[in-house]
Amino acid sequence: MSINKESDVAANLQIGPTELGMVRIYVEGNGIDLPLDFDPEEAEEIAEELMAAAEAARAMGGKGKPKGR
């Protein structure tokens, strides 16, 4: 599946700290149970990539408005 292909797959996403000082992104769906742990620096890099992708999507006419503007 490519990043531009739509999907009917639904999943829940949870993000939070673990007791070991890691940041966990937890994906759960039909047949999916995927905990992904990252150190705080990696988590910040992922957050930066998400923000950049959101800005790029917005520039291409994506839905939503920038927060705080």
Commentary on this structure:
The relative contact order is 0.13. This protein has one helix spanning 40-59; strands at 11-17, 23-29, 32-38. It has 69 residues and is an alpha+beta fold. It has one domain. Helix content is 29%, strand content 30%. A 3-stranded antiparallel beta sheet has the order 1-2-3. The mean pLDDT is 90.
Note the topology.
Elements lengths: L10 E7 L5 E7 L2 E7 L1 H20 L10
Structural key phrases:
three-stranded antiparallel beta sheet; alpha+beta; 69 residues; 1 helix
Strand order of the largest sheet: 1-2-3
Number of DSSP strands?
3
Strand content of the residues, in percent? 25-35%
Taking all Cα atoms into account, the compactness measure Rg is: 15 Å
Structural class: alpha+beta
Report the principal-axis shape: globular
Helix content: 25-40%
Helix-strand sequence: EEEH
Number of domains: 1
